[in-house]
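User: Sequence recovery, please. Input:
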């Protein structure tokens, strides 16, 4: 009889331990799933690379973010490659040093500021932050480009690219 009780007690404890472990595993999984993702696809945050590698006189394309990064002084900025006119992708033209939209001929300077063409404003920007020297673009946080007006930089304009961009 005593042996039977010991076995029953043992099995009861094992069940309690098993249920306890299952509850801990379920709680951990729930907590993990509900945590916001540090890095994700377009619409979320995307790591670019070291801030010190962001070009100051040109741009770097970041396909995952549909963006170009460049420097505005010491600040890293990210421009959405989507034209504010009708949404074409606006390529950077290395020879002219500006963005040239191939669809209807809107032009923007290196900071995405409006230069000419049918676009109603400059290129839209994504929010950026630098964490431990690494640039992160928040593609879910978009600021519309500034309306046409004076440019904040004075950089020379070279020969344009055929059909816009691809320099
Ligand atoms: S879509 Fe770029 S100028 Fe029309």
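Assistant: Recovered sequence (167 residues):
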């Amino acid at each position: 009889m005593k042996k039977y009780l010991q076995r029953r007690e043992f099995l009861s404890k094992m069940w309690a331990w098993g249920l306890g472990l299952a509850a801990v595993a379920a709680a951990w999984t729930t907590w993990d799933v509900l945590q916001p993702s540090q890095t994700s696809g377009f619409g979320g945050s995307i790591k670019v690379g070291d801030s010190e590698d962001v070009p100051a006189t040109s741009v770097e394309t970041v396909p995952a973010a549909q963006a170009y990064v460049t420097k505005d002084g010491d600040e890293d900025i990210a421009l959405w490659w989507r034209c504010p006119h009708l949404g074409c992708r606006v390529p950077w033209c290395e020879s002219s040093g500006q963005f040239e939209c191939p669809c209807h001929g809107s032009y923007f300077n290196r900071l995405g500021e409006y230069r000419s063409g049918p676009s109603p404003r400059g290129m839209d920007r994504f929010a950026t932050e630098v964490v431990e020297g690494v640039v992160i673009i928040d593609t879910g946080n978009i600021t519309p480009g500034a309306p046409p007006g004076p440019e904040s930089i004075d950089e020379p304009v070279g020969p344009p690219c055929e059909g816009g961009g691809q320099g």
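The chain has two domains: 1-35, 45-143.
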